Amino acid sequence: MGKYFSIGELTRSSVARREGIDNTPPPDAEIRLNQLIDCLLDIVREMWGGPITVTSGFRSPRLNEAVNGVPSSQHVKGEAADITVGNPEDNRKLFELIRRSGLEFDQLIDERNYAWIHVSYSAENRCQILHLG
User: What is the mean pLDDT of the chain?
Assistant: First the structure.
């Protein structure tokens, strides 16, 4: 558990609850979720200076399929979170803050014109920045 984020927060899913899907991460994914929290999310939250909402974190393979995620999604590995600070304008500011921060990350993705931001952290971070319509 980090200063601002928890494993529970990164595994919560309304789709899993509605569909009766167990979204408990295996031990290796839980380790990676803690790394994501400690090495990226908590630091970003501290830099932002206000709340950041996780809209999607870990996804079990069954949950990932239910939400039409790609099978190779970093969410399944416990390496990714989709985050928002409430609106596209502020999400754009958060995206730029992360991009310019010098923090190690694997991917930083503007999803749907800053509707949300995908961030990921892995053992081999690529610092890849993408904009997906």
Answer: 97
Tell me the β-bridge partners of 54: 83
The model's pLDDT over 27-42, given as tens digits with 9 standing for 90+, comes to 999 999 999 999 999 9
Does residue 121 contact residue 39 with C-beta atoms inside 8 Å?
yes
- Edge-to-edge order in the sheet of strand 53-56: 53-56, 80-84, 116-120, 107-111, 128-132
- Which residues have C-beta within 8 Å of that of residue 79, sequence separation ≥ 6? 32, 36, 106, 120, 121, 122
8 Å CB contact between 125 and 106: yes
Q: What's the CA gap between 88 and 76, in Å, rounded?
A: 26
Q: Say which range, 28-32, 59-63, 129-133, has the weakest mean pLDDT.
A: 129-133
- The tokens describing 103, both together, are 């923090």
| pLDDT number for residue 133 | 76
